[in-house]
Design brief:
Blueprint: E1 7-18, E2 21-33, E3 38-42, H1 49-57, E4 65-74, E5 77-78, H2 84-90, E6 95-98, H3 102-105, H4 112-123, H5 128-141, H6 147-150, H7 160-172, E7 178-182, H8 190-207, E8 210-215, H9 218-224, E9 227-232, E10 235-241, H10 242-247, H11 252-259, E11 308-311, E12 314-316
Length: 325
């Protein structure tokens, strides 16, 4: 019997208010992540990756954002519609998030040890001394040198890579089942990036985590992902295993992304993708990628393609390529 996914998203649509009207930023997203699996979400800026993660965490701005429809199941429990008090008990304990820029996510007025201990005390029944000891253990776990001495240091006293390790320590302090990593290596140099990716992979294996890894860097995807979903203009346009996606991409947008990525095994210049991702106020009736697609046919401009299964555990949203192999 197949194990139920830790996270299962079905038909998720998220809207934001702009110029007095509601517009969809995420439309009909389906996604499932298993235990001990890293599921990468890739796409250009503005494709809806981070919005999907914020919807899972229940952190959409209350005045300007809303979930219009869909379901978000965490270990069989529906998250949409839960009151804030119930979500507070889930965030950090069952699902945690590593944000893109740790310098803005960490509190600059508190020592890092106190920030980790605060996360521990929020979800575990322990006194301040026990929480402090656990915070130090977490800093050791994420390989911060001289953890006992660094506990009383402030975020500005850490390098970018060390701050990201602190963020990972906070996220894992209560041993969540699901980790959402929103471009956690974007601001890091290549060497530190590799160290952080290796750390996340080691911790995933140790704790049996399910990981949603959000990035625009396909090189990172190749290193860390088991499965990949490609997002464009608020929709998933292709999902496949990481090996299948790189070996034989089906959606024209996925092909274009791969062609725009520098590779050591390929000579020649990069091929930029012409045009830009449409604004949420400019989504038409047809395929959202059609204005930028060299394969577009007449139907692509007038009818939205469905997400079709073209092989086991492989889907694509395309009128031209959306046929079974």
């Amino acid at each position: 019997m197949t194990e139920a996914p830790i996270l299962e998203i079905r038909g998720l649509s998220v809207e934001f208010r702009s110029e007095g009207a509601w517009h969809a930023a995420v439309r009909g997203v389906d996604l499932a992540i298993q235990r001990n699996q890293t599921h990468a979400i890739v796409g250009e800026s503005g494709s809806g990756k981070s919005v999907t993660a914020l919807a899972v965490m229940g952190l959409l701005p209350q005045q300007s954002g809303r979930i219009q429809s869909g379901s978000i199941m965490l270990e069989g429990r529906e998250l949409i519609g839960l009151p804030e008090q119930a979500l507070d008990k889930i965030r950090g304990k069952q699902v945690a998030m590593i944000f893109q820029e740790p310098m803005t996510a960490l509190n600059p007025t508190m020592p890092v040890g106190q920030q980790i201990a605060e996360a521990v005390r929020a979800h575990r029944r322990c006194d301040a001394s026990s929480a402090w000891n656990e915070a130090q253990r977490m800093l050791d776990l994420v390989r911060v040198p001289s953890a006992a001495q660094r506990m009383r240091d402030y975020p500005h006293q850490f390098s970018g890579g060390m701050r990201q390790r602190v963020m990972i320590a906070i996220a894992l302090a209560c041993q969540p089942r699901l980790l959402l990593a929103d471009e956690p290596t974007t601001a890091l140099d290549v060497t530190i990036q590799a160290q952080v990716l290796s750390l996340i992979e080691d911790l995933k294996r140790e704790y049996g985590l399910a990981v949603m890894f959000i990035t625009h860097n396909l090189g990172v995807v190749a290193l860390i992902a088991d499965c990949v979903s490609v997002m464009y203009a608020g929709e998933i346009v292709e999902t496949a295993s990481v090996n299948e996606l790189f070996a034989a991409p089906k959606h024209p947008y996925t092909e274009a992304l791969l062609a725009s990525m520098p590779r050591v095994d390929r000579d020649g210049q990069l091929e930029p993708i012409g045009g830009i991702v449409p604004s949420i106020r400019e989504i038409g009736a047809g395929c959202t990628f059609a204005p930028r697609c060299a394969l577009a046919i007449e139907r692509c401009h007038s009818m939205r393609p469905p997400l079709l299964e073209v092989a086991p555990e492989r889907t694509v949203r395309c009128w031209v390529r959306g046929v079974a192999a």
